[in-house]
Amino acid sequence: MNGSADTIPAQDVAARAEQGTSLWKDAWLRLRRNKLAMVGLVLVVLILAACFVVPLFIDLDPNTQRLDRKFEAPSATHWLGTDQLGRDLLHRIVEGGQISLLVAFFATFLTGIVGILYGGIAGYVGGRVDSVMMRIVDGLLAMPFLIIVILFRELIKVPVEKLSDWLIADVGLSTDLVLRFGNIAPLIVAIAAFGWLTMGRIVRTQAASLVELEFVEAARSLGLGHGRILLRHILPNALGPIIIYATLTVPSFILYEATLSFLGLGIEPPHASWGSLIKEGANFLETRPALILIPGLVFSTTLFALNFLGDGLRDALDPKSSKD
Questions:
Q1: Inter-CA distances, 296 with 253, 268, 306, Å
Q2: CA gap 38, 26 in Å, rounded
Q3: What is the pLDDT of residue 11?
Q4: pTM for the full model?
Q5: Which of 20, 158, 237, 294 registers the highest number of CB atoms within 10 A of its CB?
Q6: In degrees rounded to 5, what are phi and psi of residue 232?
Q7: 3-state class of 82 per DSSP?
Q8: Higher confidence at residue 45 or residue 16?
Q9: CA–CA separation, 285 vs 281, rounded Å?
Q10: Which phi and psi angles does 82 have, rounded to 5°?
Q11: 309, 41 in Cβ contact below 8 A?
């Protein structure tokens, strides 16, 4: 009995050794051991659920003004009270989270597509083409990011408004839906148009190092085309650094959106983002500090959570960098 019982664990160990493991499974195990990263992950999931899932089951009313109920204290009707126009502060924060997070996620998605393709081509082709493409990136990086984004946003604002009018009048889409997304579209495009530069440099470095490895030579010897080698072999192997940087980009873009909204160059009334809510609350800092403290706390918590998660993903997907 004892002999057979002792052989079972040994067989299990051998079976597990033969099965092996994967990069993503190892990364998940390392991520789970990072307590701050797991706290960040839980907070991000809760914030996303509060902003996008909960509104599906309750009727949000963030823009209706009730001047007879302005500056109300928290109650069963208004959990966080009301603002200077009698609007429910909790509903405004949820709507602000939707807009701020949508701007950040869509801008990150667009910067990822442009940066991955641009950097991948530069790193794969190499030589003079790589040199010219990277000098273009260096020149754009030398420009003041926020100022360029502001100017570019103003340039595309009119075409976006014309497109919105066409979608409402000719296509027949919902006016509220078109105006809401037309409100954030200039911000998304403006941030993404100049936010892909660092992503491009990161992908270029990864592609340039991968193009010299044996599996790329093997793919070439099989007669595969350049596009297939780049898209099916090189870029998937650079996915780790791409995910790491994309995760750390989201909080940066949330901060950019908040900065523009705080300056009055972001989301237009009556809709709100976290940045515009903080701007409105700043006007009543001495008399009603809750109007700036509550949105500011939610905004800061989201940034901390995303940064903790991004740092955890960096350590999990690239453990060598965490040891350096």
A1: 16, 19, 15
A2: 15
A3: 52
A4: 0.81
A5: 294
A6: -100, -20
A7: strand
A8: 45
A9: 6
A10: -125, 165
A11: yes
Q: How far apart are CA 167 and CA 104, in angstroms?
A: 24
Got the DSSP string for 115-168?
HHHHHHHHHHH-HHHHHHHHHHHHHHHTS-HHHHHHHHHHHHHHHHHHHHHHII
- List C-alpha distances in Å: 151 to 140, 146, 156, 264, 307: 14, 9, 9, 14, 28
Amino acid at 21: T
DSSP 69: G
> What three-state secondary structure class fits 91?
helix
How far is 289 from 73, CA to CA, in rounded Å?
A: 12
Q: In the structure encoding, which two tokens stand for residue 167, read together?
A: 């979608």
How is residue 58 written in tokens? 């309750």
Question: Is the C-alpha dihedral spanning 98, 99, 102, 104 positive or negative?
Answer: negative
Measured distance CA(194)–CA(140) in Å, rounded: 8
CA angle 136, 140, 145 (to 5 degrees): 165
Alpha helices, DSSP H only, in the chain?
Answer: 2-19, 23-33, 35-48, 89-125, 127-141, 145-166, 175-195, 197-210, 214-221, 226-229, 235-237, 239-262, 274-282, 290-317, 319-323
Measure Cα distances from 156 to 183, 185, 201, 204 in Å. Answer: 12, 9, 26, 29
By three-state DSSP, how is residue 269 classified? coil
Q: Which domains can be identified in the chain, with CATH numbers?
A: 23-48+104-323 (1.10.3720.10)
How many other C-beta atoms are found inside a 10 Å radius of the C-beta of residue 133? 18
pLDDT of 279-302, one tens digit each? 889 889 888 899 999 999 999 999
